[in-house]
Specification:
Length: 379
């Protein structure tokens, strides 16, 4: 089909688009770009009016209305909930007399997990889709567009379009064909193996741990987890990003992709970790507790996630942003990527120079962290 037959437009929301064509482009492997997840954020009020996240999905369709490509995108008037920090860029541009906000954010809100950001019928649609995003910025005076936590396979598509690439480090657990947690422990050094066994034993003292997923998820589980989520959210970022309704909608629309790990003491839930299940990865998202217990955070978020990934034959666990403490628990440094389009040529040049210098530091840190993993040397 010729480019002249294609129509690029901004839809009012993901929910305004039919689910089946969207999910056909999304591919089904990543739960966060699914129609169910993104519309749960919209319908629950977690994004939309008053949040600073205004849905603005960019799509390409033909004259018959057939969807060929899409971007999960949002107009942003702040930089909260993104996990790729550009506050210094905003400050610099504002000091220079510009207006950094609003900007276009191509991302899954509040979700520092890798995944496709270009939802494509074919890679040939990448260039016109990114061009549409650039034209949207130009027409509405937006300073920039940012695609965060892009899957590695799509880096070349952004680079080919001339977007600036940025990298950072997360900690992921990799399944090297393990058949059990003990099998994984066998790959660690003797001292680390003993440390992890002690941590697990201590964490499990006096508690019962349950995995809840699919049809077993009920409102009472979400009520308990909401308390945990609010406690963590109020301490980490001031107020929770998600509304209570979002969790009910996750359970209603994508229960088979949800794994809730709960710790009970005397029959009462005291802590929990929320995970999402992808085609080849388990994604740890939120954790919280109402009673502090030694090592329970590590048990629910990291060790139980490893158990679940092994049981499901998944290739990795992505445990979210930050957290050098994950390194000692078998989660290894992995580079994550974002792509950035800057409207002003001078500002773009300054950002490109910054990114070049930043990459040197990230490379050095990644190399150092790679020498500090708990695995047996030569193993």
């Amino acid at each position: 089909m010729a480019d002249s037959d294609l129509i690029a437009r901004v839809a009012p929301s993901v929910g305004s688009l039919p689910a089946q064509p969207w999910d056909r482009l999304a591919g089904g492997g990543n739960p966060f770009v699914s129609h169910a997840f993104l519309t749960a954020l919209e319908d629950s009020g977690s994004v939309g009016p008053g949040t600073g996240w205004s849905p603005a999905p960019v799509i390409i369709e033909d004259g018959r209305g057939t969807l060929h490509a899409a971007l999960p995108a949002y107009l942003k008037n702040h930089s909260q909930g993104e996990y790729v920090f550009d506050h210094a860029w905003a400050d610099a541009w504002n000091r220079a007399g510009g207006h950094y906000y609003p900007k276009l954010q191509i991302a899954v809100p509040f979700t520092p997990a890798t995944g496709p950001r270009l939802l494509l019928e074919d890679d040939a649609y990448a260039a016109p889709l990114l061009n549409a995003a650039e034209r949207l910025c130009a027409q509405h005076g937006l300073s920039s567009a940012h695609a965060t936590f892009i899957e590695p396979a799509q880096r070349r598509l952004f680079e080919r379009a001339g977007w600036l690439l940025r990298n950072d480090i997360q900690f992921h657990w990799e399944n090297r064909g393990y058949t059990s947690f003990d099998d994984f422990l066998g790959a660690l050094s003797s001292r680390k193996r003993k440390d992890l066994r002690k941590e697990r034993a201590r964490a499990q003292e006096g508690v019962e741990i349950r995995h809840v997923t699919g049809a077993d998820l009920r409102s009472e589980h979400w009520d308990a987890f909401w308390d945990f989520y609010q406690d963590t959210g109020s301490r980490k970022w001031g107020h929770p990003y998600l509304t209570r309704a979002a969790f009910d909608l996750f359970g209603e629309r994508m229960a088979e992709s949800v794994l809730l790990v709960l710790a009970y003491e005397h029959g009462e839930p005291i802590a929990g970790a929320l995970n999402f299940i992808g085609a080849d990865a388990l994604y740890g998202r939120y954790w919280g507790c109402t009673r502090d217990r030694p090592f329970l955070h590590f048990e629910l978020c990291y060790y139980q996630a490893i158990d679940a990934a092994i049981a499901r034959g998944l290739q990795r666990v992505e445990a979210g942003a930050q957290g050098g403490h994950k390194l000692a628990r078998g989660y290894e440094p992995v580079q994550t990527w974002s792509a950035h389009w800057i409207a002003d040529p001078g500002f773009r040049e300054a950002v490109a120079d910054f990114l070049e210098r930043e990459r040197e530091g990230v490379a050095q840190e990644s190399f150092y962290l790679g020498t500090r993993t708990p695995f047996r040397k030569g193993g």
